[in-house]
Write a structure and sequence with these properties.
Layout: H1 2-40, H2 49-61, H3 65-68, H4 79-82, E1 102-108, H5 114-131, E2 136-141, H6 144-154, H7 161-170, E3 175-180, H8 187-197, E4 205-208, H9 225-241, H10 247-252, E5 255-261, H11 270-281, E6 287-291, H12 301-310, E7 315-320, H13 327-333, H14 341-347, E8 353-356, H15 365-387
Parallel strand pairs: 1-2, 1-3, 3-4, 5-6, 5-7, 7-8
Helix pairs in contact: 1-2, 2-6, 5-15, 9-11
Length: about 400
């Protein structure tokens, strides 16, 4: 009897060891891919980056489905290559050469969500190109992490600022207008301006256009025509998408709209307070402004929930106050994790219904028109500078 038990135990141990060995082999392969992903999850581009992106994808493709599920690193996970974000072929990286002497470089933070990149960023770029047929419109992103992701996963190469500016110089561009798709005069805008300044002498004339919300203003009450247009446009779009005829109809139905921006510690964070002031000035009592970072403080998710609850609204529509509906919109706002805004609003127990509209600002015609107007102002300034 003991011999039988001993044999059975030996078989069980041998089976367990074999299983563990097999799992270990799978994990090692998954870890190797995770390491390659982490290596390209960086903000600095080098001469090795493109090859690293290609090798990371090749290594991923060799994994079995079970091995792909095991990929986990400092920043790597199965979604890096596995998540379906749409058809990358619909997007145009706008990095073609032989473009003539006049260029408008549209600069965005960027997104790895293919559909949003084509609809939101592409929407702005197309509107500017249509309004300026004698100028060549080109693209640059400022997030190398995103550019590497798109390159590795989809084989689409998007220029960073340095690459785009060098390309302009190589193409013999004489007149250059930079149109940021950034929301405000924040850190990204400052970095863009510093990068452009290093290249100013390589062109005959350079001008940088205003971001979406225009000049920041001195205090929370300072609003401008850009902020008013944005407030009206995004609210009208959200109301329409939610199936209401008017904002008042939504209010009567106990529905509030919450626009979630990124937030920033930069002094430009007052722009979010100004957007809230603009909503109040328009009489939009059931519209609220929040931010992922919770800066300014009143825009934190916790404080926005309290504000909406205090006014007695039972239904909430969440929508990004961002040019693109990328990672923040899909995960921080509408994700299923416990710390997403959708989950936090539900967990509060104060609301009967939470809906999410995952659409960026860049696909709204009125928003595109603001960028077109800002580009026109920059073109005018550029022309005047050449006359001096």
């Amino acid at each position: 009897m003991k011999k039988i038990l001993s044999t059975a135990a030996s078989i069980l141990i041998a089976t367990s060891l074999a299983f563990a060995a097999g799992k270990s082999a799978d994990q090692k392969k998954a870890d190797a891919v995770a390491k390659k992903i982490d290596a390209i999850y960086v903000q600095k581009w080098t001469s090795k980056t493109d090859k690293q992106c290609l090798n990371a994808k090749k290594a991923w493709d060799k994994l079995t489905d079970a091995q792909k599920a095991l990929v986990e690193g400092e920043n790597a996970d199965p979604d890096y290559f596995g998540r379906d974000t749409g058809d990358a072929s619909k997007d145009n990286p706008l990095n073609q050469d032989k473009i003539g002497e006049n260029e408008i470089l549209v600069v965005s933070f960027g997104t790895s969500f293919n559909d949003s990149r084509a609809a939101d960023i592409g929407g702005v770029e197309s509107a500017i190109a249509k309004a300026n047929p004698s100028w060549s419109v080109r693209r640059a992103f400022t997030s190398q992490i995103i550019m590497n992701h798109v390159n590795a996963r989809d084989g689409e190469k998007i220029d960073n600022m340095e690459q785009a500016l060098n390309r302009a110089v190589k193409n013999g561009v004489k007149n250059l207008v930079i149109q940021p798709t950034h929301l405000m005069h924040g850190a990204e805008y400052d970095e863009l301006s510093a990068a452009v300044k290093k290249y100013e002498k390589k062109f005959e004339a350079v001008a940088i256009a205003e971001p979406l919300l225009g000049q920041v203003g001195k205090d929370a009450a300072a609003v401008n025509s850009d902020k008013e247009t944005v407030a009206k446009a995004i609210t009208a779009e959200a109301v329409k998408k939610a199936g209401f005829g008017t904002l008042e109809d939504a209010k009567a139905a106990g529905t509030a709209f919450v626009f979630m921006g990124h937030g920033t510690s930069h002094t430009a964070k007052i722009s979010y307070s100004q957007m809230a002031s603009q909503m109040e000035a328009l009489g939009y009592e059931n519209v609220f402004i929040g931010t992922v970072e919770g800066e300014p403080e009143e825009t934190s998710c916790e404080n926005v929930i309290k504000a909406v609850q205090a006014k007695g609204y039972k239904n909430v529509v969440l929508r990004p106050l961002m040019v693109v509906a990328g990672d923040h919109a899909n995960n921080d706002m509408a994700g299923d994790d416990d710390d997403s805004w959708k989950s936090l609003f539900k967990a509060s127990g104060a609301f009967e219904k939470i809906d999410c509209q995952i659409e960026g600002l860049g696909r709204i015609p009125e928003i595109e028109s603001i960028y077109v107007s800002h580009t026109a102002d920059a073109l005018k300034a550029l022309g005047e500078s050449k006359k001096k």
